[in-house]
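Appendix C: a fully annotated inverse folding record. The material below is reproduced so that readers can follow the format used throughout the book. The structure is listed first as tokens, followed by the designed sequence.
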């Protein structure tokens, strides 16, 4: 079977692998989803029951057969709510009993309360509803057209990674819920995605008691319209809000009785604020954890603070706060994901929250090279390890310093074992990698395929095999595949990320071209007279821009669903990097493929371009058609491919690049 077809059937070798791992707060069990085999798309819910005092072995058992679209459990993992095609099931995780739950129509985002007695869910009508222990389905909030309760609006989901819109109180008696009014966003259209410079949905926050009480949460929503993070585990709720231009934000504590807010911390950056995942949150002693940037006294780091006190050393690039672990003297330690000097690797660190005379203290828990993630509950730590030595995430379960179990992997292994050469190049120390064809013989010159993303928030050069499986297929089709994380990507330092502010195109194209030159000195088999470039969405924009602006470097390009016109991007995404269109129309013009395509080629060589669109996405197809019209007008060679299935799309892209490079 050819790689493109096998990749599609195995979902790039992820089917049959454990994912969505959750640990009970007391460490008694580990929950996860997994399908039955390498080509089975149907996830079931599994639990690993762990021995407590008295010994015994960990037991893995199936608790609910799939298909399961999503699940959520109470903190102690006693009850789980499962959703499949809008149907709701309740699982008693202690006994394994599964029961269908009658709901008022299709169900989304179902979540048990912390006591495990009620289940809240969202309805298609924009309602937030609660199913009581006796089975009664109660409407908690709902208004109808243009207003929805308890959901994360499009901007929050896509641009701030806030995927929830309601949160249970720790006692299970109150829900903190968003009210989203998108009446002013693209009126009359089904897709309510505000465009750069346009009007966002109005988002407010409310405390809803199960007995019908209602309290509004108060903050200056005109000045700080973006609600980017919410936490309510202990103490009162904590929220993070940002200004429209995202250069200033507030961490606010909410009084659950009155809805009044108090400022706990300010976030500020002249370019944009980048909150740390997993923050803000409370410590048991009442201090508030906030992730932010340390950019003075020579430091250039993403760190963690507790009420303004530094908890992590500036050498760490903090990525996420996972949770709390038992610590000495009654003060909890923190489990965090971070990089320490090598951006291609991510490791787990244990961070002290009790600061003594010795200052900050952290200990690295994962030692093998690779990309590590974690989940924690009680004294149980589950480590997900990805590396260049194997495909997929290998999950191990630890109690204290002892490994007590593994989560079984049922996924397939690809035939090829890619061995990317990871590098840091140019005076900017750009992370880069080269993948050669299997069995490559030194001295054989190869055309280069620059396979890029390059977008802010996305990192491609990582020490994990999954990042290179498809790239190995491209290499085995006759290319030396090069990937470069230009400035603007995470993992190195805040200044490395944010230097692209309002000048994405120039900085990123310069970095990609300079990295190619630097790599050719270390890899003489790279033929820089034959360089192709390809990318998807942001990477598609950069690939198309490369052949339009730098045809002397890039011979041809494949642009999959590219950003054609930044003015058509979402508000938060476009404005974070380019500002508002009204304030800098020349910036938007400089970053537009339409403007670049309209420029006469002159005497420069003209590089062919293949533009790929998903036929099921009418917005993408329309943008691609706009670009094609301008390219035709200026006699620039290009082809269109309307195909989403990788089994057909990848061979078509390969054939185009082979004949064009």
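Designed amino acids, in order:
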């Amino acid at each position: 079977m050819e790689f493109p077809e096998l990749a599609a059937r195995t979902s790039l070798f992820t089917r049959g692998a454990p994912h969505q791992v959750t640990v009970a707060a007391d460490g008694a069990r580990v929950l996860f989803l997994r399908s039955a085999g390498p080509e089975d798309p149907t996830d079931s819910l599994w639990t690993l029951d762990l021995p407590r005092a008295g010994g015994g072995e960990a037991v893995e058992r199936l608790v609910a057969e799939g298909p399961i679209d999503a699940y959520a459990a109470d903190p102690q993992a006693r009850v789980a709510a499962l959703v499949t095609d809008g149907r709701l099931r309740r699982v008693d995780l202690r006994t394994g009993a599964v029961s269908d739950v009658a709901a008022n129509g299709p169900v989304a985002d179902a979540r048990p309360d912390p006591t495990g007695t009620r289940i809240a869910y969202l309805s298609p009508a924009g309602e937030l509803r609660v199913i009581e222990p006796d089975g009664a389905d109660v409407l908690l909030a709902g208004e109808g057209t243009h207003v929805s309760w308890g959901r994360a609006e499009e901007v929050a989901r896509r641009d701030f990674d806030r995927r929830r819109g309601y949160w249970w109180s720790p006692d299970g008696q109150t829900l903190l819920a968003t009210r989203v009014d998108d009446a002013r966003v693209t009126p009359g259209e089904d897709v309510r995605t505000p465009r750069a410079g346009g009007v966002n949905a109005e988002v407010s926050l409310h405390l809803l008691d199960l007995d019908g009480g209602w309290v509004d949460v108060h903050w200056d929503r005109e000045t700080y319209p973006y609600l980017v993070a919410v936490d309510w585990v202990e103490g009162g709720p904590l929220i993070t809000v940002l200004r429209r231009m995202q250069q200033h934000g507030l961490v606010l504590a909410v009084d659950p009785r009155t809805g009044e807010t108090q400022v706990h911390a300010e976030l500020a950056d002249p370019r944009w604020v980048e909150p740390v995942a997993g923050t803000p949150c409370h410590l048991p002693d009442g201090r508030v954890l906030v992730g932010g940037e340390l950019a003075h006294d020579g430091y250039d780091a993403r760190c963690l603070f507790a009420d303004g006190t530094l908890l992590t050393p500036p050498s760490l690039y903090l990525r996420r706060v996972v949770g709390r672990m038992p610590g000495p003297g009654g003060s909890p330690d923190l489990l965090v994901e971070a990089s320490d000097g090598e951006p291609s690797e991510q490791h787990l660190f244990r961070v002290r929250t009790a600061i003594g005379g010795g200052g900050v203290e952290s200990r690295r828990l994962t030692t093998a090279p690779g990309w590590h993630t974690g989940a924690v509950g009680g004294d149980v730590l589950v480590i997900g390890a990805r590396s260049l030595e194997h495909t997929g995430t290998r999950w191990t379960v630890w109690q204290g310093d002892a490994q007590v179990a593994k989560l079984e992997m049922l996924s397939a292994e690809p035939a090829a074992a890619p061995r990317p050469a990871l590098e840091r190049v140019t005076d900017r120390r750009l992370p880069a990698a080269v993948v050669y064809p299997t069995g490559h013989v030194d001295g054989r010159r190869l055309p280069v395929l620059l396979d890029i993303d390059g977008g802010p928030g996305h990192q491609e050069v990582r020490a994990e095999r999954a990042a290179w499986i498809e790239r190995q297929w491209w290499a085995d089709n006759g290319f030396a595949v090069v990937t470069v994380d230009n400035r603007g990507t995470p993992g190195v330092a805040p200044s490395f990320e944010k230097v692209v502010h309002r000048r994405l195109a120039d900085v990123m194209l310069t970095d990609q071209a300079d990295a190619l030159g630097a790599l050719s000195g270390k890899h003489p088999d790279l033929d820089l007279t034959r360089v192709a470039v390809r990318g998807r969405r942001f990477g598609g924009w950069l690939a198309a821009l490369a052949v339009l602006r730098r045809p002397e470097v890039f011979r041809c390009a494949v642009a999959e669903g590219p950003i054609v016109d930044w003015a058509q991007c979402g508000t938060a995404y476009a404005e974070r990097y380019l500002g508002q269109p009204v304030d800098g129309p020349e910036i938007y013009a400089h970053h537009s493929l339409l403007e670049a395509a309209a420029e006469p080629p002159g005497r420069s060589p003209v590089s062919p371009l293949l533009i790929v669109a998903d036929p099921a996405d009418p917005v993408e197809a329309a943008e691609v058609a706009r670009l094609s019209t301008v390219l035709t007008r200026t006699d620039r060679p290009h082809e269109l491919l309307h195909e989403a299935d990788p089994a057909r799309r990848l061979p078509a892209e390969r054939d185009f690049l082979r004949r064009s490079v």
